[in-house]
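Example 3.
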Amino acid sequence: MSSPLRALLEPVLPLSADLALSDVTDRFQQGGFERMLSLAVVDEANKPVGLISRHALMELLLNKYSRDLFGKRPIRFFMNAMPVIVSLSDATTEVISTVTSQIRIPIVEDFIFTEIDGTYAGMGSVADVLKMVEQRLGQRNQALAKANQEIKASQAHLIQSEKMAALGQMVAGVAHEINTPLGYVGNNVQMAQEMLVQIQVLLQEYEQLFDGLVNQTAEPQEIEARIQSIASIREDFDVVSDLADLSELFQDTRFGLKQIGEIVQSLKNFARVDRAASDRVNLIENIETALTVGQHHLKNKVTIEKRFEPLPDVPCAPSQINQVLLNIFTNAAHAITHEWGRLLIRTYVRGEFACISIEDNGSGIPEEHVARIFEPFYTTKKVGEGTGLGLSISYRIIRDHGGDIRLATKAGVGTRFEISLPINGPAASNDHDETTDGIAGAMAPDAQTTAGMHSPHHDDFPENTIMIGSVQA
Amino acid sequence: MSELFTKPTLLLVDDEARITRSLKMLFRGEFDVLTTDSGHEAIEMARQQTISVVISDQRMPIMSGVEVLRGIREVSPNTMRLLLTGYADLAAVIGSVNEGEIFRFLQKPWDAEQIRADVRAAAQVAELSFAAASRQDLQPALPTVKACTGILLLDRDPLAHELVRRATPPSNPLFWARDLDEAMALLDQQDIGVMVADVMDGQASHVGAIKALKQTHPDLVTIVLTQLRDYELLVELINQGQVFRFHPKPGHVGTFTKNMQSALDYHQILQLQPETRKRHAVAKSTKPLLTGLSDRVMGYFRRMGVN
C-alpha cells in the first residue's frame, strides 16, 4: 500500500483510555511529538475511541485544583469522543473531504488514521492536509492551463487547415483556368516562331531572285534554281492561308493572355491585397470577383442568373466578404449533382441593409443538419474534404460586420442563403431583428412552409438566425 | 499528285476551341486532324473510322476525359489514347490508367516539341496495333499463347504477396523478388509477362526500377500496387513506366484478380505484335514540282523586253 495518505501519517503512540489525566499531561510534556496538537485514545483492542488535545488539557488545567481533583481519573472522561477518523484505505479525495468538512475551527485537534481493520495507525495533521490540497489544486490548474493551451492551439491549427484546404481548392481551380489559355498561347507562339523561320527563308529566296533580276547579273540556270527553290518552299508554306492562320493564332493568343490577365486580376481583387482592409465597397463587384475565382466549380454545371438591384456601397472588409461568397458558391456547386443546375443571385436593399440572396436548386440540407450548419467543425463531407469551418467562419465574419446570414432550405429542392450587411456599418445595425419577419415571409410566399419552427430552439445563435422554408424553385 | 501514303488520323477533344485550333495547326502536316468539343461525338467518330491517336481534355461538360477515353477504348481498342489536362485530381490520374489505359498523361501548358514526339510515338504504336489486328482478322486461327506466363512480385510486403498469390491463376507461376537485383535475375531466367510492384519499399523508391525494366523488357506489363498518393509520381510512372494499372493497397482480391487477368491478356496482345517497329511513313512526294520552268520564265521576260 503506497497511498499518498502514508505521507500524512504521524505514527505516534496512542493513549490508553484508562490512562490517568495526570499521566497524559506528563506524556504531552515528555516531547517527541511537538508537531501534534492532540493524541488518540484507544481501547484494549487498539481501536480509537477518542482524542485529547493540548488545547483541551490546558483549558482543564487552568481551573484551580483541577489537577488535584481529577488527576487520577482516566482520560476517557475528558477526551473528545467524536474525533475525526479516517482509514488509510480510503481514497485520498475522500479523506480530504472528510477532514476539511468535519474539522472544527479554530483548529485545535488532529485527526486519526486507522488501518483497514479499524485499529489505530497514527495521527494526521490538518495543516498537512491543507498543504496537500493546495498542491493538488496547483497541479490541476497547471493541467487545465495546459489543456486550454492545447485546445487553443488545435483550434488555430484547424482554422489554419481549413484556410489551407480552401486555398488549395482555389489554387486547383485557378491552375486549371490559367493552364488552358497558357496551353494554347504557348503552343501558338512556338508555332508562330517556326512559321517565322519559314517566312524568313522564303523572303531570302525572293530577295535574291529580285536582286538577280533587277541587277541582271543572274544566269538563267541560277534564276531557274531560285524559282525551283521558292516553289518547293511554297509547297510547304502557303503565304495567303498560312498567314491568315498566323493572324488567327495571334488573335487567340491575345484572347488567352487577356483571359489570364482577368483571372490574375480577379485573384487580386479577391484577396484585396492592394486595398484598405475596410472600405466602402460595391458588393456587386465582390459577387463578380467571387464568381470568377470560383468559376471552375460552377462552369459546365450551373447556369447563373443574376438579378441585381443597385446597392449602395457598404463599409466592410471586402476580402472577408469574398471568402463568405466563395464559400456559399462552392457549397452550392457541391450540392448540385444533376445537370440542370441553377444559381440565382439577387441583390436588393431592405431597410438599412444591403442584401445578397443566393439560391441554388441543389440537394438542399436535410432537416436534421439544418440546425447545426453554422456550428464550428460540423460537416457532412468526408474526412479531408472539409473541416466544417466554412460556414461557421462565414457566420462569424458577417456577424462581426453587424450583419446576418440566414438560410431557407428544403431537401431535394434547394437552398437559399441571404446575407445582409448594414449600409451604415456595424453601429447602425441595432434594429436588425425587425427585419426578421420580412425574411420569413420572403422565404415562404406560400403558407405550406415550416418557416421559423426550428429557430427558437436553437441556443447557440441569436434567435431567428435559421429559418426553414420551402424554396420556390 | 497521288498520295502514296495516307496520313494517320488524330482526333482532338476539348471544349475550348482555341486548344483544338492550336493543336490542329501543330499536327495538320503529319496527321489528318479531326476536332470535336463533345465526348459523345468523339466516341462515335472512333466507332466509324480508324483513328490512330486521340488527345482528350479531362475537364469538360457532360463527359470527363477519362470517360471519353474509356468509351473510345471500348469501340476502338487500338486507338492510342492521351489525356491532356490543365489540372487533374488524383482520381483522374488513376482513372486515366485503370479505365482509359492511356499512353501518355499530358499537362497544360505543354511543350510543342514534346507533344509532337509523344503523338508520333503513339501513332507508330497505333499503326502496329491496327496492322496486328487486321492480321488476326485474316488468320482466324489464333495461336494459343502459352498459359504459363510468369508473374513477378517486387515488394517485400507479405500481405502483398498473399494478395498476388490469391489473384494468380493456378497455371501461372509466381516469382517473388525482394529487391531489384532479384527481380532482374528472375526476369532474365524466367518467362515473365506481368510484374506487380510497389513504388516504395521502405525508404527505397522503385520508380526508377519500374521505368528501367519497362525499357529493357518492353513486353512486361506492370501493375503498381501502392498506398502512395502522389500526383507527380503517378504521372511519371504513366509516361515513363507505361504502368498498366494502379491498384490501391491494401488490395481487394476480387478487383485485383480482374486487374491481373487484364494484364495477362494485354501481355498476350503485346506478344502477338510484330517485332519490326518501322517508323510511320510521312515522307513527302519527290517528283519535280514544276517542269520546263526556265523556258516559261525566260519567255515571260522576253515578252517584257527585259532580255
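Residues 150-303 of chain B form a domain with the Rossmann fold fold (CATH 3.40.50.2300). Chain B touches chain A at residues 15-16, 18-19, 21-23, 25-26, 29, 59-62, 84-87, 89, 107-113, 115, 284, 289-290, 293-294, 297-298, 301, 306 (CB under 8 Å).
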